[in-house]
Amino acid sequence: MTGADPRILDLIRQRCAEVSAGARLVHLDADAVPAYAARLIAEGHGRDELPADPWLATEGDAESRAALVIALDAINFGSGYHPVVTKRPDMSGAVTMATSLCEHADRSGGITAASLSRLNAADPHTIFGQPHDDGPVDKLMAHMAVALADLATLVTDRYDGRFLNLVDDARHSAARLVGLLDQLAFFHDVATWRDIEVPLYKRAQLTAADLSRAFDGQGPGHFDDLDRLTAFADNLVPHVLRVDGVLHYDPDLASYVDRGELLRAGSEAEVEIRAVGVDAVERLCAAMGERGHPTTPQELDHILWFRGGAPRYKAIPRHRTRSVFY
């Protein structure tokens, strides 16, 4: 399976619904959905203020902005490593990494395919402010080096070194952009659950959403099917839904997560958490629409993601998996 299938967004929904219906370790409480939808309409992101969004690249010409957004999403993974990375004050691991790459772009004159291709294996430690540890931090930095090198190769070999050519090749289709990015191994976010292939494509979908925000839905940020994006399957949105009583974990899984134990990437539990989270967002969007508050899954994902930064959610462990997909 690849993201080249133009029906990929529908297939993500279908397969996540199948996982949700048969999940053994993660239960979606359908009875809780209507009340929680009403609560989200009333509370929104549930925070007094929102942090600055480093993915919202609004400076520079169109090529440099597109390059920065796509490069940011190419390295927007590693949540399972964040407990051990060096974070900036008052920043999460994800925001620390994104802010660091933005500052690197400012110092170096912008992100280009040529500049990314010149990075060596040690450069991510400098760019992201991470010391060597002969352990998980080194592994994460090695993954980021590969992600940026592979992106540079794709843009150089297929798009004449221009990120906008990659975006143009999507032809204003988020589904097609998913397929184009699926050429890169770290974007091929497809899990296996009980012999069923479950496409999730968290970061490939997020790239379309981030381009839309960066360009205010115009030009390189215009996608005709943006409203068809699903939730971006990671570890924060399911965590928020669990804390707020929409998702319930098997007692052994809940204990495992609460102890901060790492879940194996691709394990039954990890796939169910991500896939059932996607299905829960679909059901919540339907319930919000029924209440006269139409919301797309990517809009609701954004609300839940920022909601997860509130202290009540940070006080409880979320699941951790060392993966290149989120």
What does this structure look like?
There is one protein chain. The protein is mainly alpha-helical and 326 residues long. It has one domain (8-314). Helices cover 53% and strands 4% of the residues. The chain has a two-stranded antiparallel ribbon. A two-stranded antiparallel ribbon has the order 2-3. It starts with 7 loop residues before the first helix and ends in a 12-residue tail after the last helix.
Q: Which range does the strand content fall in?
A: under 5%
Taking the sheet with the most strands, its summary is: 2 strands, antiparallel
Unreliable spans are none
Helices and strands, in order, run as HEHHHHHHHHEEHHEHHHH
- Counting helices, strands and paired strands, the structural category is mainly alpha
State the helix count: 15
How many DSSP E strands? 4
Mean pLDDT: 95
- Report how far the terminal alpha carbons are from each other: 20 Å
Q: How would the global form be characterised? A: globular
Placed side by side, the strands forming the largest sheet appear as 1-4
Portion in helices: 40-55%
Number of domains: 1
- Round the Cα radius of gyration to an integer and report it: 19 Å
For the structure shown, list the relevant keywords.
two-stranded antiparallel ribbon, single chain, mainly alpha, 326 residues, 15 helices
